Known about the structure:
This protein is of the alpha/beta class. It has helices at residues 3-19, 113-123, 154-159, 173-182, 196-209, 213-235, 269-275, 281-284, 295-301, 310-315, 319-325, 333-336, 345-348, 355-367, and strands spanning 62-64, 84-90, 93-99, 105-108, 146-147, 151-152, 164-167, 187-189, 247-254, 259-263, 279-280, 290-292, 305-309, 340-343.
Amino acid sequence: MNNTRKSRIRAVVALALGLSIALTGCQTGGPAKSGEGSEAVDLPPLTSLTPLEDPRAYEGPSTAVVGPPSIEPLAERPEAKLPVTVQSQDRTGEIPVEVTDTSRILAISLTGTLSDIVYNLGLGDQLIGRDATTSFPGSEELPLVVTGGHDIEAESILGLEPSVIFTDLSVGGIDFVNMMRNAGVPVIVVNRSVNLESSSEATRQVAAGLGVADAAEELNANVAKAVAAKETEVAELIPADATKLPRVVFLYVRGGAGVYYLFGEGSGIDELLASVGVVDVADEVGWKGERPMTDEALVSMDPDIIIVMSKGLTSTDGIDGLIEAQPSIALTTAGKNRRIIDIDDSLLFASAGRTPDVIDALARAIYAPDSLQ
């Protein structure tokens, strides 16, 4: 790193310390460590499981267990072609950003997706820090620079002297981007990943910014192949009788903040539910995106299964607290049967290389929950 950039970094570090900057997002709580719930998990193959005869009739809660990453980094490490100029997807429009050095990469997001992409491109050893949800093997050794899900430790980041930063603005926001750029660090804003298509585009944007654009297509092909293979495995668990297909909805819960959202079309949950072959009751009623739950909507949907994030369920002190906070849940089949499935917050929306693993976890919890006990 040249002396000019070092001087600018020192100046901005001093400013950050002096102002005690803490850039905070809207979500309360967050993962305390990376890969929580996915370490040392030994799961039998889906093909070896005996599925429920009628998954709609099952009673009791389950925790969907996400196994270790099934996508491996590219076998041949891509060689960067630098310098490269790419378009950062800033909210005000595309901004050209030149990258001359990728030896010290920082890739941060709410879901760990961007660091996962860098790792799967075969460049994980060039990452110098991690967000709270990064979970690839060995990532726990990296310094944590994003805490509580959203809080940016700006001075810590600058102290690591990154040569390039990738973000999707889910943490820190544009103020963080401007601060880093003022310190002379190239920052590339990537489109946020919510499903396989947007994740593939994020992979292309990250790879281009690292000077390895061609590698994105190979990685995207690997992910698509793994997802298709996992869907084929799941198909063997789905009941042939369509009347036994479980009716499922995802409920985003933050009990302490009184936040309860139903997720529908375009949220990313819709694609996951399609992959596991259930009836997406939000899609059935035309629920778009992420919107506050209403009693009328949930009762009319009458799901057999409600999926929540693990920390969301913890925020209501478990199922009893969830039903107490939202009594309409007790009026649904899921509530009557206490058929609530929780899944690790940091992995559900991770996208990229973790999608097949999330599909696997949901399929086990829906069709063979006894295998998880």
